[in-house]
Amino acid sequence: AFFFQSNPLQGSGKPLAFVIEHDDLAVLGRYAERLRKALARLPGFTDVDTNLELDKPQLEVTVDRDRAAALGLSVADVAQTLKVLLSGDSVSHYRRGNERYDVIVELEPADRFSPRDLRNIYVRTSGGTLVPLDTIVEVRESVGPSVVHHLARRRSVTIDANLSGIDLGTALDQVRAVARDVLPAGFETALAGHSREFARGTRGLSFTFVLAVVAIYLVLAGQFESFGHPLTIMLALPLATLGALAALVALGMTLNVYSFIGIIMLMGLVTKNSILLVDYANLLRARGLPAREAIIAAGRTRLRPILMTAISTVFGILPIALGLGAGAEARRPLGVAVVAGMSTSTLLTLFVVPAAYHIAAAAAARIGRHRR
Prior knowledge:
The protein is an alpha+beta fold. The protein has helices at residues 25-40, 65-70, 75-87, 168-182, 193-224, 229-233, 236-250, 257-269, 271-286, 291-322, 328-371; strands spanning 2-5, 16-21, 45-50, 56-63, 89-96, 99-105, 122-124, 130-132, 137-144, 147-151, 154-163, 188-191. Strands 1, 2, 3, 10, 11 and 12 form a six-stranded mixed beta sheet that branches. A two-stranded antiparallel sheet has the order 4-9. Helix 7 packs antiparallel against helix 11 and helix 10 packs antiparallel against helix 11 (328-371). The longest helix is centred in the C-terminal third of the chain and has 44 residues, at 328-371. 28% of the residues are buried. The model is unreliable at 1-6 (pLDDT under 50).
């Protein structure tokens, strides 16, 4: 068996790659097969497989340490001899023109064809004497793993699968749930390949979402020279998010990378409706109108531009939401999030933002009277 340190960034090319780790290879193989069968029964999972094969023919070479020590040999000497003669070893190199060629020492293929050929191998002792290999080792045919993968210095198995009619985010949630039921204590899990990058990207999008909200607040605070008006304007954000999430749930979609990007897009799109209302209401108040009359007049005046921009945005994103075009099925959650969030935010903003503006203005007026 050969031992490799697995690179979690690499995968088999399949979108789903789930890694389980355990110190005992037999236990690892047994539960990896149980988990593979459990995942294969889930709808949407196809070509479920593992990278562990425990039935490869192999030769087990057991060194008689006492006899080897008596002849002046160590286990390392035997292992090095077998490595060089059976798998080859680069002992030198030469150049011809601009090309470099390695000189590899190994037995002829005909001399390493069957287990009986091991009897013809000799090991050189520290004194220079050649000792037949079969006098110090016992060779036994068996089966075992051809490759034993390691992740973080622990033995690991990667279970991968193709997906049909299910997105990667939902698939990972289902795999984690099944793993919690199948795997006992002592196992650790990780993601590999596309799955690992997907999970990392999702965490990055969460930070981007928070950063977008903070950036919007700071820009609005600088534009209106107030810390209160931005909060009134940003009431459109939860309204848009609520509409987007409701639409995704109603259509059986999940909060994946595309839908998350759509919600982040909404953060910048929906605030413009509130800005139109609040900015014009402030202008009317500066001309002497009371807050209530100012926000009502702003709603009447700004209704047409708000509806026009919202409708144009919705119809522009609608082809993506309908899933038209090649490969549009993956981008459909983005369109659904934007269309639904924009629609609900536009309708509710016309009522919620004016009410919040009037309440905030009345509270500010009361605070001003108490201070005087």
